[in-house]
């Protein structure tokens, strides 16, 4: 081999080795967070800030209805953390021993509101007025899997209009779909969280569910026992329940929730 060829080979070998070392040093640990669809907007900003503060971690977010995510975790779907919009879904995982010990936190709260398309004129101004037949289509999360739908059912049952409303309900897979239907004018009204309504300029809030008409809206967060990264999961929970993440949540219409 000529001297020039030898030098070129050495330089190439060094470049490959340097690239390999660089790739190794930049390898990130992926943390998968299965989260209620209503958390989508604030989690976008929270994730970006989190990854700047923890450059060795990558936060992957899977959004969906809390009930569907619960079932996926029970069936072994990859998840390191679960952030539910309802207590019942987290309770179900806890009873099955699927949560990482000592990690459960009540990480946010919310309010249930009635929304209409912004441009539509209507005299529907209360949850109770949904019982009147003139409201033909009302978007509601499917109560069996969507916590917002469960809270809606509780509220409407308290007001004695549930039987009337459910015959005209358009059932949805999550609360985000409720909002989309109202925004497009596919329905005359919808029941969503205040945080969802606050993030849309195409709907207007006409009423808040009466106090005591439904169970408190609490968003519990916990690590999943099957995680391969328990220390990183605990650190992520500390961040998500810390002041910066909580400030972002409150800017998006969420409320503070105290740990139980």
UniProtKB/TrEMBL annotation:
UniProt keyword list: Metal-binding, Signal
SUPFAM superfamilies associated with the record: Periplasmic binding protein-like II (SSF53850)
Gene3D superfamilies given in the database record: Periplasmic binding protein-like II
InterPro entries assigned: ModA, ModA/WtpA, YvgL-like_PBP2
Family under the similarity heading: Belongs to the bacterial solute-binding protein ModA family.
PANTHER family reported for this sequence: MOLYBDATE-BINDING PERIPLASMIC PROTEIN, SULFATE-BINDING PROTEIN
Name the record gives this protein: Molybdate ABC transporter substrate-binding protein
């Amino acid at each position: 081999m000529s001297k020039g060829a030898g030098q070129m080979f050495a330089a190439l070998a060094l470049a490959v080795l340097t690239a390999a070392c660089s790739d190794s040093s930049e390898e990130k640990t992926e943390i998968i967070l299965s989260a209620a669809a209503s958390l989508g907007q604030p989690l976008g900003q929270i994730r970006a800030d989190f990854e700047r503060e923890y450059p060795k971690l990558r936060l992957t977010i899977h959004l969906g209805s809390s009930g569907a995510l619960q079932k996926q975790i029970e069936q072994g779907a990859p998840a390191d953390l679960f952030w539910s919009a309802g207590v019942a879904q987290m309770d179900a995982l806890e009873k099955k021993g699927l949560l990482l010990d000592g990690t459960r936190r009540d990480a946010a709260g919310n309010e249930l509101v009635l929304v209409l398309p912004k441009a539509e004129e209507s005299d529907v101004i209360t949850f109770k007025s949904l019982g009147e037949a003139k409201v033909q289509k009302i978007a509601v999360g499917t109560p069996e899997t969507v916590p917002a739908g469960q809270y809606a059912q509780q509220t409407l049952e308290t007001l004695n209009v549930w039987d009337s409303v459910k015959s005209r309900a358009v059932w949805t897979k999550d609360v985000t779909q409720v909002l989309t239907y109202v925004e497009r004018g596919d329905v005359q009204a919808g029941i969503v969280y205040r945080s969802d309504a606050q993030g849309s300029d195409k709907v207007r809030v006409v009423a808040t569910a009466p106090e005591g008409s439904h169970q408190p809206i609490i968003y519990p967060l916990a690590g999943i026992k099957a995680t391969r990264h328990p220390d990183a999961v605990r650190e992520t929970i500390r961040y998500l329940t810390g002041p910066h993440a909580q400030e972002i949540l409150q800017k998006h219409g969420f409320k503070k929730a105290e740990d139980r």
